[in-house]
Amino acid sequence: MGLRLRFNLILTVIFLLGLLVSGLVSHNLLQRNARAEVVHTAELMIEAAQAFRAYTVNEIRPLLSNQLHDTFLPQTVPAYAATQALGALSEDYRAFIYKEATLNPTNPRDRAADWEADLIQQFKRDPERTTLSGTRVTPGGASLYIARPITITNESCLSCHSTPAAAPASMLAVYGNANGFGWQLNETVGAQIVSVPTSVAEQRADTTFYTFMLSLCGLFVVLYVVLNLMLSRLVIKPVTDMSKAADKVSTGDFTIPEFPEARRDEIGGLARSFNRMRRSLEQAIRMIEE
C-alpha cells in the first residue's frame, strides 16, 4: 500500500467521522433552535393577546360603558377584542391561530374543541399550573400550542356570566340566555390557546443543515486536492526521485546529479544524507578500482 493511498484512507476516515459528528451536533442544534423560535413566536402571540385584553379593559370599555345599557358592544369584551385582533393576523398567516376556548362560552365560536377541553380540564384539576404546551398533528402539519388558563378573578365578569337575570338585556338580545352563564369566582372556565406551525421553522433549519453539510463536503474536496498536491510536491516526488537515484547508484551509475540540500525539513535532511552516502560510495568504489 503506497504512501499516498494510506494518507488518503486516513484523511477519508477522519473526514467521515468529522462529518458524522458535525452532522449530529448541527442537526440537533438547528432543530432545537427551530423549536425555540416557534415557542418564542407562540409566547409573543399570547402576550400580544394579553396586551389587547388589557387595552380593552383600561381604554375601550370606560369610553363605551354608558352605551352598554342600550346596545351591547362586543368590542368592550376583552376576549372578543383579542380574538378579533389576532384573527386578522390569521387571515395572512392561516396556520397561526389564537383562540379563547371556553367550556360554556357566550359566543359559540369560542366553544372548546375536544383537545382544547382536555387542556382546560387539566388546568381545573391543577389550579397551580399556569402554562401547558405541546405539539399536535393538524391537517396542515405539526403545530406547537401554548395554553394559559382563563380564570374568573374579577367579580365584574360575573355581572354578565353569573345568571341570565343579572346579564345586560342588550347582551341577551345578541347571544341569548342559553350559554355563557353559571360562571363562579376563581373558576377556570377556559384557556387562551395559541397554535403555531413548526413546519416553517423546521424547513429553514433543514435548509441550513443541508447547506452546511454541502459546504463541509465542498471544503473537504478542496482540502483533499490541496493536501494531495502538497503531498506529491513536497514528499512523494522527492522520495520517488531518491528511490530511483538509489537504484542507479546501487548499480554503479554516479552520473546523476546530487539532490538540492536547501530545504530545512526532513526531506532536506534525507537529501543531505543521500548525497553523503553517494559521495562515500563513489569514493569507495574508485579506491577499490585503483
Note down, in words, how this protein is organized.
There is one protein chain. This protein is α+β, with helices and mostly antiparallel strands. It has two domains: 3-11 and 210-289, Helicase, Ruva Protein, domain 3 (Orthogonal Bundle); 21-205, Beta-Lactamase. The chain has helices spanning 3-64, 78-92, 114-125, 158-161, 169-175, 199-250, 266-289; strands spanning 97-102, 132-138, 141-151, 188-197. The chain has a four-stranded antiparallel β-sheet. Helix 1 (3-64) crosses helix 2 (78-92), helix 1 runs antiparallel to helix 6 and helix 6 packs parallel to helix 7 (266-289). 19% of the residues are buried. The model has no long low-confidence stretch (mean pLDDT 83).
**Number of structural units classed as domains:** 2
CATH topology of the largest domain: Beta-Lactamase
Number of strands: 4
Pairing-aware structural class of the strands and helices? alpha+beta
CATH architecture of the largest domain: 2-Layer Sandwich
Total count of helical runs of at least 4 residues: 7
Radius of gyration (Å): 39 Å
- Side-by-side strand order of the widest sheet: 1-4-3-2
CATH class of the largest domain: Alpha Beta
**How much β-strand is present in the residues?**
5-15%
How would you describe the shape? rod-shaped
The average pLDDT is: 83
List low-confidence stretches.
none
What is the straight-line distance between the termini? 43 Å
Q: Approximately how much helix is present in the residues?
A: 55-70%
Instruction: List SSEs in N-to-C order.
Output: HHEHEEHHEHH
Question: Main β-sheet: number of strands, strand sense, barrel status?
Answer: 4 strands, antiparallel
